[in-house]
Design goal:
Length: 93
């Protein structure tokens, strides 16, 4: 299983803190997010990805407490046992 933790506005939008999804062979973060969206009825990917499917500036996605910006971004592989944390861009001042 892959555990997903939702933070900030995504948590409020989805009205849940976490979700679990079985791992899939040779899947990356981008593919996993698409599959996750299919399992959750409330649209949320537009908060993380732009129309081209790229990360919106300020989005933070962590796999096992490592930011995917320092790995292979959306191409970072995900495997059984991973914990993914999703943080939408923040705002304020």
């Amino acid at each position: 299983m892959i555990k997903v933790q939702f933070y900030s506005l995504i948590r409020l939008l989805l009205k849940q803190e976490k979700f679990e999804l079985p791992a899939s062979d040779k899947e990356n973060v981008g593919q996993f997010l698409q599959r996750l969206q299919q399992q959750i009825s409330t649209p949320f990917l537009h908060k993380l990805l732009d129309r081209k499917g790229e990360l919106i500036l300020g989005t933070i996605i962590m796999i096992n407490r490592r930011n995917i910006h320092h790995l292979d971004k959306l191409e970072t592989p995900v495997v059984c046992g991973d914990v993914i944390a999703l943080f939408p861009p923040g705002a304020g001042g």
